[in-house]
Design the sequence.
């Protein structure tokens, strides 16, 4: 398949797609559960930069 934006991960089969959707849902729930603590650790006036340059 020719694409200007190829998939990073090739998911083959409905079962594989279901597993990935379930994992993403679990991760989204975990992020929401810990959102307040994550935000509270931010420092004012500090810019985010990429790790490793």
Sequence:
């Amino acid at each position: 398949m020719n694409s200007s934006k190829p998939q990073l991960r090739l998911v083959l089969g409905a079962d594989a797609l279901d597993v990935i959707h379930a994992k993403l849902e679990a991760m989204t729930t975990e992020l929401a559960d810990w959102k307040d603590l994550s935000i509270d650790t931010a420092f004012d006036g500090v810019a985010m930069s990429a790790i490793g340059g």
